[in-house]
Amino acid sequence: MSKFTKGGSELATHDSHMKHPAFNIKQQSLICRLCLFLLFSVIACHAVSANIHEDVDFVALNKVDFIHYKAELAADFQAKSIAGKVSIEFVPKVHNVTTLTFSAKYKTIHSLKINNIPTSHHVNNDDLVITFKAPLLINKSYTLRIEYQSLPQRGMKFYDDHLFTVYHTKNWLVSHNSIADKASFELLLTHNAALTSTSNGKLISQQKTSDNQVISHWLQDSPIAIYTFGFALGEFEEVKAMHKNSSLSYLYRKAETSGLTAKSINNVFIDVPNMIDFFEEKSGFDLPNKSYQYVVVEGYMAQEAAGFSLVGEKYAHTVLEDKNENWFIAHELAHEWWGNSITCANFSHFWLNEGLVQFLVAAYKQQLFGEAAYKKEIGVAIARVNRAVQKGKVSPVAFKHQIKEKNINRTMVYSKGALIFYMLRKKLGDEIFWRALKTYSMENRRGSVTTNDLKVAFEKVSKQELTSFFERWVYGNEIPDLSL
Question: For the CA atoms of the chain, what is the radius of gyration?
Answer without folding.
Answer: 27
